[in-house]
Request: fold
Amino acid sequence: MAERSAPVGVMDSGVGGLSVLAEIQRLLPNESLLYVADCGHVPYGEKSADYIRQRCRHIARFFRAQGAKAMVLACNTATVAAVADLRALYPDWPLVGMEPAVKPAAAATRSGVVGVLATTGTLQSAKFAALLDRFASDVRVVTQPCPGLVERIESGDLSSEPLRQLLWGYVEPLLAAGCDTLILGCTHYPFLRPLLAQMVPADVAVIDTGAAVARQLQRLLGAHELLAQGPSRDTAFWTSAEPDALIAILPTLWRPSSNVQLLDV
Reply:
């Protein structure tokens, strides 16, 4: 059985999962965290489900070799493709995935129209269709795939004019359709909240699931008697691309860290 002091592994296709990592650290400050940015294979949204499953298997094996007591798939597309596969492989290992916040958005909307910004892979998945059937039968859901956003965020671009024009091209049709609630269906997109705030009316709710994922991790660790009780170590980072690129972007999306290693899987 894992020790309470063992780390928690958090992975994403790139740096988007840092938005979830921040929520986990805020709620569970005593936990030691390992973060894998699979930047050598980003974005996942346009890749096949089998390809993503294989990447997630590699990363899960890496976390287990590091002694991780739990794993968080801080990526909607990875969750869609791989979380069921990983749970079958590791039935006794706490695993937390992501899913677009359809249920809270359906409850929050006043106009009855909800917009979803997400990757193509998430929007085309059976899991997303099932979410709509389960929680959004009484509302109209307008979906918008957002190619190009992940790549810009990966480069550290959170405010340029080309990014602004790209994002507006995705948001404007949702507002025109009457959406008063927007779901950020990719963990990269919360980093665009300041830019979105300049584009959407103040009464439009913008919802993501990072905090809910942190709460679910807290519940699972508690159920397995694995909640850490002492001070945490520094968060350790790995990337499947050039480490200097992640080191350069961490001050913008997280905080400065030189504890970044190459992930060779």
